[in-house]
Protein backbone atom coordinates (compact mmCIF):
# COMPACT_ATOMS: atom_id res chain seq x y z
CA UNK A 1 0.00 0.00 0.00
CA UNK A 2 1.32 3.43 -0.91
CA UNK A 3 1.46 6.25 1.62
CA UNK A 4 -0.85 8.40 -0.49
CA UNK A 5 -3.41 5.61 -0.79
CA UNK A 6 -3.52 5.17 2.98
CA UNK A 7 -3.90 8.91 3.61
CA UNK A 8 -6.74 9.16 1.10
CA UNK A 9 -8.59 6.44 3.00
CA UNK A 10 -8.31 8.43 6.22
CA UNK A 11 -8.92 11.80 4.55
CA UNK A 12 -11.01 11.15 1.43
CA UNK A 13 -11.79 13.91 -1.04
CA UNK A 14 -15.16 15.44 -0.31
CA UNK A 15 -15.29 14.43 3.35
CA UNK A 16 -16.11 17.48 5.45
CA UNK A 17 -13.29 17.06 7.99
CA UNK A 18 -10.48 15.88 5.68
CA UNK A 19 -8.74 19.30 5.59
CA UNK A 20 -7.82 18.87 9.27
CA UNK A 21 -6.27 15.38 8.97
CA UNK A 22 -2.51 15.47 9.56
CA UNK A 23 -0.42 13.70 6.88
CA UNK A 24 2.81 13.50 8.94
CA UNK A 25 2.77 9.79 9.82
CA UNK A 26 1.60 8.89 6.33
CA UNK A 27 4.22 10.73 4.30
CA UNK A 28 7.13 9.88 6.61
CA UNK A 29 6.49 6.16 7.11
CA UNK A 30 7.76 3.07 5.33
CA UNK A 31 4.74 1.00 4.32
CA UNK A 32 6.50 -2.09 2.97
CA UNK A 33 5.19 -4.17 5.88
CA UNK A 34 1.61 -3.00 5.46
CA UNK A 35 -0.56 -5.35 3.35
CA UNK A 36 -2.55 -3.97 0.43
CA UNK A 37 -6.31 -3.87 0.88
CA UNK A 38 -7.73 -7.23 -0.10
CA UNK A 39 -4.44 -9.02 0.53
CA UNK A 40 -4.50 -12.41 2.21
CA UNK A 41 -1.68 -11.34 4.51
CA UNK A 42 -2.51 -11.73 8.19
CA UNK A 43 -3.29 -8.47 10.01
CA UNK A 44 -3.33 -8.08 13.79
CA UNK A 45 -6.68 -9.12 15.27
CA UNK A 46 -9.04 -6.19 15.74
CA UNK A 47 -9.42 -5.34 19.43
CA UNK A 48 -13.09 -5.05 20.32
CA UNK A 49 -13.99 -1.80 22.09
CA UNK A 50 -17.40 -0.96 23.53
CA UNK A 51 -18.55 2.35 22.04
CA UNK A 52 -22.18 2.15 23.15
CA UNK A 53 -21.56 5.24 25.31
CA UNK A 54 -21.11 7.43 22.21
CA UNK A 55 -24.10 9.53 21.13
CA UNK A 56 -25.74 8.54 17.88
CA UNK A 57 -24.32 10.41 14.90
CA UNK A 58 -27.62 12.23 14.52
CA UNK A 59 -26.89 14.11 17.77
CA UNK A 60 -24.28 16.14 15.84
CA UNK A 61 -21.73 15.85 18.62
CA UNK A 62 -17.99 16.09 17.93
CA UNK A 63 -15.70 13.71 19.82
CA UNK A 64 -12.15 14.49 20.96
CA UNK A 65 -10.22 11.31 21.80
CA UNK A 66 -7.17 11.98 23.99
CA UNK A 67 -5.89 8.43 24.43
CA UNK A 68 -2.60 6.54 24.01
CA UNK A 69 -2.05 6.60 20.25
CA UNK A 70 -2.98 3.02 19.25
CA UNK A 71 -5.92 3.15 21.67
CA UNK A 72 -7.25 6.24 19.87
CA UNK A 73 -7.27 4.23 16.65
CA UNK A 74 -8.97 1.23 18.30
CA UNK A 75 -11.74 3.43 19.71
CA UNK A 76 -12.07 5.22 16.36
CA UNK A 77 -12.73 1.88 14.64
CA UNK A 78 -15.46 1.09 17.18
CA UNK A 79 -16.99 4.50 16.55
CA UNK A 80 -17.38 3.75 12.84
CA UNK A 81 -20.47 1.73 13.69
CA UNK A 82 -21.87 4.78 15.49
CA UNK A 83 -21.38 6.88 12.35
CA UNK A 84 -18.30 8.93 13.32
CA UNK A 85 -15.50 9.80 10.92
CA UNK A 86 -12.03 9.57 12.52
CA UNK A 87 -9.79 12.58 11.93
CA UNK A 88 -6.12 11.83 12.76
CA UNK A 89 -4.36 14.84 14.30
CA UNK A 90 -1.13 12.99 15.17
CA UNK A 91 1.73 15.40 14.45
CA UNK A 92 4.92 13.60 15.54
CA UNK A 93 7.52 12.58 12.98
CA UNK A 94 9.13 9.13 13.29
CA UNK A 95 12.84 8.99 14.03
CA UNK A 96 15.63 7.00 15.71
CA UNK A 97 15.57 6.97 19.53
CA UNK A 98 12.37 9.04 19.46
CA UNK A 99 11.08 10.63 22.65
CA UNK A 100 7.51 9.82 21.57
CA UNK A 101 7.38 6.30 20.07
CA UNK A 102 5.17 6.43 16.99
CA UNK A 103 5.74 3.00 15.43
CA UNK A 104 2.82 1.28 17.26
CA UNK A 105 0.57 4.21 16.33
CA UNK A 106 1.73 4.19 12.71
CA UNK A 107 1.09 0.44 12.45
CA UNK A 108 -2.38 0.81 13.99
CA UNK A 109 -3.25 3.56 11.49
CA UNK A 110 -2.23 1.53 8.46
CA UNK A 111 -3.75 -1.74 9.60
CA UNK A 112 -7.03 0.11 10.17
CA UNK A 113 -7.21 1.19 6.51
CA UNK A 114 -9.20 -1.80 5.26
CA UNK A 115 -11.78 -1.50 8.04
CA UNK A 116 -12.10 2.24 7.44
CA UNK A 117 -12.39 1.82 3.68
CA UNK A 118 -15.36 -0.53 4.17
CA UNK A 119 -17.18 1.81 6.58
CA UNK A 120 -19.07 3.74 3.88
CA UNK A 121 -19.37 6.85 6.05
CA UNK A 122 -21.34 9.89 4.97
CA UNK A 123 -19.24 12.81 3.75
CA UNK A 124 -20.70 14.96 6.54
CA UNK A 125 -20.43 12.30 9.27
CA UNK A 126 -19.61 13.95 12.64
CA UNK A 127 -15.91 13.98 13.51
CA UNK A 128 -13.92 12.05 16.07
CA UNK A 129 -10.63 13.95 16.42
CA UNK A 130 -7.80 11.56 17.35
CA UNK A 131 -4.89 12.63 19.57
CA UNK A 132 -2.04 10.80 21.26
CA UNK A 133 -2.21 11.33 25.01
CA UNK A 134 1.59 10.79 25.20
CA UNK A 135 2.40 13.60 22.75
CA UNK A 136 4.45 15.50 25.37
CA UNK A 137 6.69 12.46 25.91
CA UNK A 138 7.49 10.45 29.02
CA UNK A 139 11.31 10.74 28.97
CA UNK A 140 13.68 13.72 29.02
CA UNK A 141 14.87 14.64 25.49
CA UNK A 142 18.61 14.28 26.11
CA UNK A 143 21.21 15.23 23.47
CA UNK A 144 21.21 12.73 20.64
CA UNK A 145 17.56 11.75 21.12
CA UNK A 146 15.00 12.46 18.42
CA UNK A 147 12.71 14.99 20.06
CA UNK A 148 9.30 14.62 18.43
CA UNK A 149 7.14 15.92 21.25
CA UNK A 150 4.18 17.93 20.04
CA UNK A 151 1.10 19.78 21.16
CA UNK A 152 -2.32 20.53 19.73
CA UNK A 153 -3.20 24.12 18.89
CA UNK A 154 -6.54 25.81 18.14
CA UNK A 155 -5.46 26.07 14.51
CA UNK A 156 -5.36 22.25 14.33
CA UNK A 157 -9.14 22.09 14.82
CA UNK A 158 -12.13 23.60 13.04
CA UNK A 159 -13.36 26.84 14.52
CA UNK A 160 -16.52 26.94 16.60
CA UNK A 161 -18.23 28.87 13.79
CA UNK A 162 -17.41 26.11 11.32
CA UNK A 163 -18.59 23.37 13.67
CA UNK A 164 -21.81 25.20 14.44
CA UNK A 165 -22.45 25.97 10.79
CA UNK A 166 -22.63 22.20 10.31
CA UNK A 167 -24.97 21.65 13.22
CA UNK A 168 -22.44 20.64 15.87
CA UNK A 169 -23.13 22.31 19.22
CA UNK A 170 -21.63 19.83 21.72
CA UNK A 171 -18.30 18.07 22.32
CA UNK A 172 -17.56 14.80 24.10
CA UNK A 173 -14.03 14.55 25.49
CA UNK A 174 -12.83 10.93 25.81
CA UNK A 175 -9.84 10.02 27.98
CA UNK A 176 -8.64 7.49 30.50
CA UNK A 177 -9.91 7.71 34.08
CA UNK A 178 -8.49 10.38 36.42
CA UNK A 179 -6.71 12.30 33.66
CA UNK A 180 -7.40 16.02 33.60
CA UNK A 181 -8.04 18.06 30.50
CA UNK A 182 -4.57 18.88 29.07
CA UNK A 183 -3.67 22.55 28.83
CA UNK A 184 -3.28 22.48 25.05
CA UNK A 185 -6.80 21.11 24.63
CA UNK A 186 -8.14 23.62 27.16
CA UNK A 187 -7.01 26.36 24.76
CA UNK A 188 -9.06 24.71 22.02
CA UNK A 189 -12.18 23.95 24.05
CA UNK A 190 -12.29 27.37 25.69
CA UNK A 191 -12.57 29.00 22.28
CA UNK A 192 -15.47 26.70 21.48
CA UNK A 193 -17.01 27.44 24.88
CA UNK A 194 -17.00 31.17 24.15
CA UNK A 195 -19.18 30.40 21.12
CA UNK A 196 -21.74 28.65 23.31
CA UNK A 197 -20.79 25.02 22.76
CA UNK A 198 -21.40 22.50 25.57
CA UNK A 199 -19.07 19.79 26.85
CA UNK A 200 -19.21 16.33 28.39
CA UNK A 201 -16.60 13.76 29.34
CA UNK A 202 -16.31 9.99 29.10
CA UNK A 203 -13.65 8.10 31.07
CA UNK A 204 -12.94 5.10 28.90
CA UNK A 205 -12.01 3.01 31.94
CA UNK A 206 -15.59 3.12 33.14
CA UNK A 207 -18.36 5.35 34.39
CA UNK A 208 -21.10 7.31 32.63
CA UNK A 209 -20.82 10.35 30.41
CA UNK A 210 -20.72 13.40 32.70
CA UNK A 211 -20.60 17.18 32.16
CA UNK A 212 -17.13 18.65 31.65
CA UNK A 213 -16.19 22.02 33.10
CA UNK A 214 -13.71 23.85 30.85
CA UNK A 215 -11.65 26.53 32.61
CA UNK A 216 -9.53 29.22 30.97
CA UNK A 217 -5.88 28.09 30.76
CA UNK A 218 -2.90 30.33 31.34
CA UNK A 219 -2.13 32.51 28.32
CA UNK A 220 -5.55 32.00 26.76
CA UNK A 221 -5.68 33.91 23.46
CA UNK A 222 -2.37 35.62 24.28
CA UNK A 223 -0.37 36.52 21.20
CA UNK A 224 2.76 34.97 22.68
CA UNK A 225 1.22 31.60 23.61
CA UNK A 226 1.88 29.64 20.42
CA UNK A 227 5.30 31.21 19.84
CA UNK A 228 6.44 30.43 23.39
CA UNK A 229 5.22 26.84 23.27
CA UNK A 230 6.78 26.14 19.87
CA UNK A 231 10.13 27.41 21.17
CA UNK A 232 10.23 24.35 23.40
CA UNK A 233 9.45 21.94 20.54
CA UNK A 234 11.42 20.88 17.48
CA UNK A 235 9.91 21.20 14.03
CA UNK A 236 10.60 18.60 11.36
CA UNK A 237 11.67 19.88 7.94
CA UNK A 238 9.31 17.27 6.43
CA UNK A 239 6.31 18.46 8.46
CA UNK A 240 5.09 17.97 12.00
CA UNK A 241 7.43 17.91 14.97
CA UNK A 242 10.73 16.09 15.35
CA UNK A 243 14.49 16.58 15.08
CA UNK A 244 17.58 15.41 16.91
CA UNK A 245 18.48 17.22 20.13
CA UNK A 246 21.92 18.77 19.45
CA UNK A 247 24.95 17.68 21.44
CA UNK A 248 26.69 20.49 23.36
CA UNK A 249 29.88 21.60 21.66
CA UNK A 250 33.13 20.44 23.15
CA UNK A 251 34.58 23.87 22.46
CA UNK A 252 34.97 26.61 25.02
CA UNK A 253 32.00 28.58 23.75
CA UNK A 254 29.43 26.23 25.22
CA UNK A 255 27.24 26.53 22.13
CA UNK A 256 25.54 23.85 20.10
CA UNK A 257 26.84 21.86 17.14
Pick out its properties.
disordered C terminus, 14% strand, two-stranded antiparallel ribbon, six-stranded mixed sheet
Number of strands: 8
H/E topology pattern: HHEHEHHEEHEHEEHE
State the helical fraction: 10-25%
Mean pLDDT: 88
How many H/I helical runs? 8
Q: Which stretches are low in confidence, meaning pLDDT under 50 for 5 or more residues running?
A: 250-257
Main beta sheet strand tally, sense and closure: 6 strands, mixed
Q: What can you tell me about this protein's structure?
A:
By secondary structure, this protein is α/β, with parallel strands linked by helices. Helix 7 links the parallel strand 5 and strand 6. The chain contains 8 helices and 8 strands. It starts with a helix and ends in a 13-residue tail after the last strand. The chain is 25% helix and 14% strand. Helix 3 packs parallel to helix 4. The protein has one domain.
Amino acid sequence: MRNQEAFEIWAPDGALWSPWAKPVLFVQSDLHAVPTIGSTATAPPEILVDASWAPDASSRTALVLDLPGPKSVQVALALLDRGYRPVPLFNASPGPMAVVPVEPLRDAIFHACERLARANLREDAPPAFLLDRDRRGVVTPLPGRFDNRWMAFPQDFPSANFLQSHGIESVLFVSLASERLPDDLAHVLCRWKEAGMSFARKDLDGGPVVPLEVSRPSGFKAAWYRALVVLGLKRSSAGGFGSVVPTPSQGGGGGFM
